[in-house]
Amino acid sequence: MRGGVGGSAVWLRAVPAGVTLAVRAQPGAKKTAIVGVYGEGDRAQLKIQIHAPPIEGRANVALIKFLAEFFSLSRKNVELVSGESSRSKVFLVRGASEAEAKARVDALIGS
Question: Which residues make Cβ contacts (< 8 Å) with residue 74, sequence separation at least 6?
Answer without folding.
Answer: 68
